[in-house]
Amino acid sequence: MTATARPSSRPAVVVGTDGSARGRDAVVTAAAEAVRRHLPLRIVHALTWPALPVALPPGLTEVSPAAARERAAQCLYDAVKYAADAVPGVVTETALVTGRPTAVLEEQSRHASLLVVGAHGLGGMLLGSVAGHVVAHAACPVLVVRGEPRPTGPVVAGVDGSPASAAVLDAALREASLRGTTLIALHAWSGSDWTELNSGLPMTYEFWSGEAQEQRVMAEAMAGTGDRYPDVPVRRRVVRGHAGPLLSELSQTAQLVVIGDHDRSRLAGPVSRHLIFHAGCPTLVVPARRDAQGLRATPP
């Protein structure tokens, strides 16, 4: 185990911890991801001060700044030890940052290869609301830890056929390759779907006939993926239904679910929120590319 008190300038896998049991689960998952990617693990704790912005009831005394910082430092120390015990060989560094958890993690994502958060937690660091905010605003992919960690099972990707979903597929293929497993690419459609990818197709009966159109959307989305990741077996599924429940069902036996948060995607906010609370395995959310002003931009 190698530990440093301050973060380095190297890209890292970043995890937020609050000292809760769910927070420890996130730390262990992040440690495994760091080793898998040959990157250091940066463990971050957000110190909110004052902890309570309201008057305390009679009989309670406010924790001093020194005591709060000491507790936070102990939380980081325990997290480093927990990561090293669970994943031998992980290289760790820590960061104790004053600020709101959402703001701290969002800033950390600007210098991270991967950001790992828990879907639930205690003490304000890994609450579901924090995970939801980070998923929507992070500058790097976000891994939301919930469900059961599984060493076996496929990687599942939600594919909507939009230009931005190419990043989702690429990330899912890479994760499947890293894990030595199969990719299940799921395209869910409701019967009234439209995507930019199929907007130029001829307006024939086949175009409007439902499943034939959606099969074409999937084929176009998957074109060339075998050349980039020839080691990954791919199973395609085109299913009529809602993406959230379908992905949640597949997550019960998967190692990982990969989706996007791009504005043009039908797998945007509602599906991300559904999986944060209902997935049976960790969910990787791939962010849309942003322009210089921080606005989401569709890939060329």
Automatic annotation (TrEMBL):
It comes from the Bacteria. InterPro entries: Rossmann-like_a/b/a_fold (IPR014729), Universal_stress_UspA (IPR006015), UspA (IPR006016). Residues 13-146, 154-287 form the UspA domain. Pfam families: Usp. Belongs to the universal stress protein A family. This is Nucleotide-binding universal stress UspA family protein. It comes from Pseudosporangium ferrugineum. The lineage of its organism: Bacteria, Bacillati, Actinomycetota, Actinomycetes, Micromonosporales.
